[in-house]
Design a protein that fits this description.
The chain is mostly helical. It contains 10 helices and no strands.
């Protein structure tokens, strides 16, 4: 999740301070509504999120989870600009909220990287068997295993809030938008992890950290996909690969199954590479934004 600081730091200019104040107050509910509408529109139009079938969870669809995170990020940046609440004016609550959130995002993205590495390791052994399909090599083929990631996610308080002050109207709006942003990002990354390694406990941990996916923007999606997660469904491309791996050792003509395996493996390999690129890119952006926000906070403290 990327807070675009160059946008968040830009102020809207009005003809007078009084007019500025009036327009901003009027813009608060409208901007929050617009923020939610942008996310809702994407969710309703994303083919993966509306796909029917017993297992709509797919690697191709998981790429749209990154798009959902990007749409939410841009909507948050636009909201901050519209209400004239640049990050340089954020209170300790908003800063603490985002820094805790971004740290957990980095942990989740690291978990995705780890899951991809394990999947790549399994693919290498399968590739070798396909290149040299001896009876011994074929008999050693195994399903791609599920994994328990053992996530330990938490949020610390009191790091940036040194004194309790009343919430300003702008801060209240930004905190609400951050709440939604966190929920969307946690859900999307949790689903990606489940698609790779069907780790039910990690999905539950992510849901707990987010406070539950009860918001109307995401509640229906959580109800739909959590049933698959809890039944330990993996992405259908991985499941199809595992089905072939189960058949190969027992097949009378396992050379034919090997050809099917090679074709399916290439599809999975291409999709995993795309997901890895998206994950690495998001990690770099989140880390850079987090560092910028910390630098801004330190500079603000020094100038007080």
């Amino acid at each position: 999740m990327v807070l675009q600081l160059q946008n968040l730091g830009r102020s809207l200019k009005f003809s007078s301070k009084l007019e500025d104040h009036r327009r901003n107050l009027h813009a608060l509910p409208a901007s929050l509504h617009d923020f939610r509408s942008k996310i809702s529109n994407f969710v309703s139009q994303a083919s993966f999120l509306n796909e029917s079938g017993s297992n709509p969870l797919s690697l191709a669809g998981l790429l749209q989870c990154f798009e959902l995170i990007d749409v939410t990020s841009k909507a948050l940046a636009k909201l901050a600009v519209e209400i004239d609440y640049p990050v340089s004016t954020w209170g300790g609550r908003a800063i603490e909220n985002y820094l805790n959130f971004s740290l957990n995002l980095l942990h989740l993205l690291n978990a995705i990287t780890s899951s991809i590495a394990c999947l790549n390791e399994a693919k290498i052994s399968i590739f070798h068997a396909c290149e040299n399909p001896t009876l011994s090599a074929v008999q050693k083929l195994k399903r791609i295993p599920s994994r328990n990631l053992g996530l330990d996610l938490k949020e610390e308080t009191g790091l940036f809030v040194t004194e309790e002050k009343p919430f300003s109207e702008k801060e209240t709006v930004v905190l609400e938008a951050l709440r939604v942003t966190k929920m969307i990002a946690y859900w999307a990354l949790g689903l990606i992890l489940s698609g790779f390694c069907c780790d039910v406990e990690s999905y539950k941990e992510i849901r707990r950290l987010s406070g539950g996916f009860e918001d109307s923007l995401i509640k229906g999606l959580d109800l739909r996909f959590s049933q698959m997660v809890e039944s330990k469904c993996v992405a259908k491309e991985v499941q199809e690969l595992n089905d072939i791996l189960d058949r190969v050792p027992e097949a009378k003509r396992w050379d034919q199954e090997i050809k099917k395996l090679e074709t399916r493996l290439q599809v999975v390999d291409n999709l995993v590479q795309d997901i890895e690129k998206q994950s690495n890119s998001l990690f770099s952006q989140v880390l850079a934004t987090r560092n910028q926000l910390l630098d801004n906070f330190r500079l603000t403290k020094q100038n007080k």
